[in-house]
Amino acid sequence: MASHTQGVHARPADPLPLEGVTVVAVEQAVSAPFATRQLADLGARVVKVERPDGGDFARGYDTAARGLASHFVWANRGKESLALDLKDPRGLEVLHGLLAGADVFVQNLAQGAAARLGLDSAALCARYPRLVAVDVSGYGPQGPYAHKRAYDMLVQCEAGLVSVTGTPERPVKAGIPAADIAAAMYAFSGVLAALLRRGVTGRGGRVEVSMLDALAEWMGHPLHHTMHGGEQPSRTGLAHAVIAPYDAYATADGDRVLLSVQNDREWRRLAGQVLERPELADDPAYATNAARTRGREKTDAVVAEALGRLDAAEAVRRLEGAGIACARLNSVAQLAHHPQLAARDRWREVGSPAGPLRALLPPIGLPGGAAPRMGAVPALGEHTDALLRALGMSGAQIATLRRDGVIA
Q1: Of 374, 327, 318, whose CA–CA distance to 346 is shortest?
Q2: Engineering a disulfide at 184: which of 34, 85, 192, 223 sits with its beta carbon 3.0 to 4.6 angstroms away?
């Protein structure tokens, strides 16, 4: 009797979790655009509403990405650009046509501007009960700082981040827009939470996120250390305030390698296997973390002398062999060619008005699901005509709006 083998069918990939969700965003700079880019990567349709006269001002920050602005490329892939003058009643009418079928609205206009246009979350949720309406601001809607300008660096200063970043001699801001990113990620997670709640209640609702609130939350460790311990953590550059050795040390080939000794057992291994100074393992001046921290300069000098005789690859090999946590102090260019990112196939290409550009896959992995939707970076007004036609406008109506400067 012939045997029959039943074919095994692969399970189809799950759809992206935000497939079918429509987001309308009146956004600029980084905080709101970076939030809505996360939504686009997870399958949402994101309509980005921009001014006809130049669009999102982040388009003009620089020309580093093949003539495009690096901030804009990073935060705006996968969106449809609608160039629309919201100060013209006809433009506002178009926007409401989109909102009538939208699930989410996100805005980060200057404080008070959305309310003047009737686009604040309270007004929109009253008009569209199923809409999730997100207000992203610098300092929140009330209080003495509500109307202050809130650029990323200013909020980093107000939130105390700059006071704990840098060297003992000089505070420095973070090298990335930390306040913008913090607000963006809370706006992103706030949208997801509100959509889940809508699935239960049938109602959307308001989401409020401020850059100061978001970054103040990220300041949790130094904040609680100061409030409850009475003393602000000191600025230590790449060193650690209460652990030694914990710093970056120069190697013979001009690189720097950071290492961290977390306990006295690790110090003994470092002394014997890396520094080749086994006598330091039980030397009272080095044997305990308290002693090493008190004599930080001597500790660092011993480590620096040993690593300074090795190239970076050999230093890392010895440190890893001894079970000591370590890392290369990479440049941004080295990050772009990081072997771990390459080994995990983390790079893709996205389209743009300047041609294909390298971009990282989003950090949220959904194994077994459809691949993230890493759509193209839009040109200003690239989708204006298609969006207006979808709302039922004729070619003549569109031409009139363009002639009058309401669209671009």
Answers
A1: 374
A2: 34
- Which parts of the chain sit beneath pLDDT 50? 1-3, 5
Q: Is the pTM of this model over 0.90?
A: yes
Residue type present at position 76: N
Which tokens belong to 149? 């300008």
Answer whether 187's CB lies under 8 Å from 35's CB: yes
Q: What pLDDT score was predicted for residue 5?
A: 47
Q: What is the identity of the amino acid at 34?
A: F
What pLDDT sits at residue 268? 97
**What's the CA gap between 123 and 113, in Å, rounded?**
13
Residue type, position 64, single letter: A
- C-alpha–C-alpha distance, residues 346 and 255, integer Å: 25
Residue 5, φ and ψ in degrees, nearest 5 = -105, 120
The CA distance from 340 to 336, in Å, is: 11
Residue keyed to tokens 């706006």: 187
The residue with tokens 């809370």 is 186
Q: What is the DSSP letter of 120?
A: S
Task: Report how far residue 149's alpha carbon sits from residue 79's, in angstroms, rounded to the nearest whole number.
Answer: 27
pLDDT tens-digit series, residues 258-301: 999 999 999 999 999 999 999 999 999 999 999 999 999 999 99
Distances (CA, A) of 361 to 7, 41, 346, 349, 371: 33, 9, 5, 9, 9
For residue 12, what pLDDT is reported?
83
Among the residues of 167-260, which ranges form H helices?
178-201, 211-218, 220-229
